[in-house]
Amino acid sequence: MMSISKVNEKPLVKICGLQDVEVLKSMKHLTVDFIGFVFARSKRQVIAAQAADLVKVLSEWQVRPLPRSVGVFVNPSVEEIEEILRQVSLDVIQLHGDESPALCRELRAKFGVDVFKVFSLNNDPNQAAEDIDLTLAPYEGVIDAVLIDTFDPVYGGGSGRTFSWERSIPYQIWARKMQIPLFIAGGLDPDNVHELVNGYAPDGVDISSGVETNGIKDMIKMTAFVERVKKA
């Protein structure tokens, strides 16, 4: 298992929702740290065989270190993860539902993967920091990164909408105490990511729809996004 707990000088970039091999090949010159493949119900969902072909492309990346492969799941069973991992080499399991600390611990121990736990922010902008700490505390020592996203009633996250970035601060404080990265997702795009990075200094950013045009990953938008994050 590779440690990613060290806070990076430049924010980590994760581009999620890849489905097309040729699109992924066109990205090989980008300084991307994580590439995400969605196994949960979504318009960007992939099956295991499709993801296996996509993951092979990561070994051809022209920028080092190579991007790490991330499988995105919502409330999976251990058996579901195991079946996917028989067919696809994943470095990270990203859990986007109500997964317990016990499941996170089991996945790390059984499969030797890193586990990213997503917390979707509810509609209460005044959620107390104490309540956030109570939510996060059981995950101490069993996850490798925290990712916060805007709540979506259908999928839980992946709404493509931003939240007030001030709300990330209690999560960031906890993640720093745990010495693990904090990723921010939700409504990011090449035009607003510079403000986020410079104003709130997350350890990583996660994007999908914000670098698409008509539902397809857009090379110009992806290049602009990565450059603006890494130069911020």
TrEMBL record:
One of its GO terms (molecular function) is isomerase activity. Pathway: Amino-acid biosynthesis; L-tryptophan biosynthesis; L-tryptophan from chorismate: step 3/5. Residues 13-227 form the N-(5'phosphoribosyl) anthranilate isomerase (PRAI) domain. It comes from the Bacteria. It is an enzyme of class 5 (isomerase). HAMAP family: PRAI. CDD domains: PRAI (cd00405). It catalyses: N-(5-phospho-beta-D-ribosyl)anthranilate = 1-(2-carboxyphenylamino)-1-deoxy-D-ribulose 5-phosphate. It comes from Paenibacillus polygoni. The gene is trpF. This is N-(5'-phosphoribosyl)anthranilate isomerase.
